[in-house]
Amino acid sequence: MSREKILAAVKQNKPAPVPLPEMLSFAYPVTDLTAAFTAAITKAGGATNIVKKGQPLTPAIKALFPDAQRIADFIEGDTTTNAALLQQPALLDVVVLKGQLGVAENGAIWVTDKDCVERVLPFITQHLVLVIDQPTLVGNMHQAYAVMGQQNPDYGVFIAGPSKTADIEQSLVIGAHGPRSMQVFIVEP
Amino acid sequence: MRVALFIPCYVDQFYPQVAIATLKLLQHLGLEVHYPMQQTCCGQPMANGGFEHLTHSCNSNFIKAFDGYDYIVSPSGSCVLHVKDHLHDHQQETKATQIRQRVYELCEFLTDIVQVQSIKASFPKKVALHQGCHGQRGLKLAASTETVVPWFSKPVQLLKMVEGLELVDLDRPDECCGFGGTFCVTEEAVSSAMGLSRIADYAKHDAHVVTGTDMSCLMHQEGLIKRRKLNMQILHISEVLAAGL
Amino acid sequence: MHTKPIPHAEAASAFLENKERVQWHDETLWFVRYKRDKIVNEIPEWEQLRDLASQIKDHTLSQLDQYLGQFEAAAIANGVTVHWAADAADHNRIVHSILAKHKAQKIVKSKSMLTEECHLNEYLETQGIEVVDTDLGERIVQLNKEMPSHIVLPAIHIKKEEVGEIFHQHLGTEKGASDPLYLALAAREHLRQKFLAADIAITGVNFAVAETGAIVVCTNEGNADLGAHLAKVHIACMGIEKLIPRTEHLSVFLRMLARNATGQNITAYSSHFRKPQPGSEMHIVIVDNGRTTQLGREAFRNSLKCIRCGACLNTCPVYRRSGGHSYHNATAGPIGAILAPNLDMRKNADLPFASTLCGSCTDVCPVKIDIHNQLYQWRQVLTQEGHVPAAKAAGMKVMAGVLASPARYSFAGKWARKLLRWFPSLALNKTFNPWAKQRDLPAPPKESFREWYQKNGGSK
Ligand code: SF4
Q1: Average pLDDT of the segment spanning C200-205
Q2: For B126-241, which CATH class?
Q3: Is C225 close to A43, i.e. CB distance below 8 A?
Q4: What architecture is domain B2-113?
């Protein structure tokens, strides 16, 4: 009954129709998207590594996290190990996932439930590694949504850096509830 | 061009020198300036206090006083904004509308209408500018730091014409001073704290003269300065622009 | 129950007694605004984005019933259960019924100003259910048995030493420890246990997309996601005004929200929830609680465009010097002051007067709400409805009479100046005249300008 009451009140009280503005598409002025993306993600507390297509990532990841015991790598790792690790996601040290696209202006990477296997993985892991193909970089959010189009995944998230908080006296602490660090591999063709 | 001088009530009563400086400045530019004796107040103190419904007679009186002039000029951004936004009279709305369109704050009148290119004044001192909020954000006398627009400032444009005057940069170029009409007494503690922050900013930048487009803001800050016996002088922008005339 | 809260001016003056604290509060929030200025100036089309955001919201409000219907249908098709709550009590009952159905005892909640507005935690407590706030700032104020003092920075009024003491008492951190890194880590460990054990997660909603039925939640800490993904049930609570028509519109709002809020390009996580996880439940509670009334108030309806970025609080020179709690309302600051009277005029009649009408809030607002004009308009409404002191009304009547007549005005002015010269001590009496508490009065000149003008005829 609240539903009808609310909708009736909205109907009665809403203003005269206002047209929906035409969406403007703002161009992104920077040409070197990789550099811009790197700057943005660095500002957000993350880091990028640029690699060539075909170059194996595992050694680089091992080098970045020498102490990591439990690495769930959904790009180069093997299924059995990953399945075993997924039994206790809270113990994961590193999760390696593929991202669909990166946004140069803000360093955000679009990841859907299809990409992250379990929705909780990019959040519960101590460290997150996202891998994106350089050609998927776009300038800004308008372009990002234009590329994603009507994809409408069941769940999707823009991830821009490790989790962080400044809730104690505005001092920035990297590593709030989610990952304490984030590494991005940009794979050049 | 017939110009009427609109002098806010508290300037008339407490700061006649500001009104005189405004008059001199305008006359110096060769303008025919009148001061309609009928005028009292724009009604802002009541309206901002929530009593706009009591301003009717005030408004009619204002219209009577200023009807028929080409321009109405006032050394107060706040009062001008009030007139522009709220001067109405259902019995003579056409006249009210005309007045709302013809009323100007002194600086914008000088830069936009008279389009002065030079001013003879000389004021060889370090000066801090307090941009009154109503003038700045309401009348758009200057770009506000919140917005992403090309920088401009009509008061600064004028002050730059004054010989010897050195304008200091403030940490917070356009923060409110806390006057706010009745706010200055109903929220006395916050109001004073805000004013003291402004004053600290001037002092930090070694300015011993503070000027601005609104005497009300300056009156409040002057009160704080005098109570603390600080070495800081308050002058309305008209007094600076008329210095040495 | 409905006692009048401490008026803003009084609470502010108490807050101002601790000079060091106030200065810190002011400077810290000013720094947030500074960072915001810096980053928005990197976006040359900022003002166009503001126009666009404002127009999208205006449009949505003008067809809100259709968009709510569209959203509901899409959400249901997505397998989400949609609930409607007319007011706070309704909202709390609905949430409670979901918890009860699942016999849930362990609840985690990420930031939601709506649940604060509805006092959900207190309500559930009376039902014997404890909710753990998981946003670090909210957890701090929750442990300290307080309300958030800021919609984006809930614990901005608390110093790290105090956080240290709160955590020492509740989380067993070392006594005297005040290093933010250490304290945040302790909170991380404490809250991770809560996330892992939670039966149900409650989140707020930043945007609700009508065409897809998706809700978008933005956090930096990752708490909304950890909660929602680990619990079997996700309850998202939203006001009716969170709607936007299409997914592409998110691009406008997500470009603005974090930049304007904290000076970041974007929050660490912008999560789009459309369907429940396989094997889980997702509920959306759509709440009115006075919003439809506000929609009907022409002068105030566009306050419903607010995206809760908090920038108007950060920029407000009054808020920075009076603290969020002085607004005695879940949402403080300028936006709180135009929302609160809609809920309860008597209780919140002081708030629209807690402003100088400087207009900084209006200029900083990403959706172009004319906040300071609405403060002005609320003053008129509150006065008309009899919510201002009688003495003030009487004084204003006298003033109106004097100012309506040039003769009475000249007479009064002359005598005021004379009295000031004759009895300066009277005018400087701090009890009669709050002006004089910290300020001197202007030295009364012998003659007014009009007297001078009459003598000098305006000649040079
Ligand atoms: S009113 Fe505007 S500035 Fe204030 S919180 Fe809402 S959106 Fe942000």
Answers
A1: 98
A2: alpha beta
A3: no
A4: 3-Layer(aba) Sandwich (3.40)
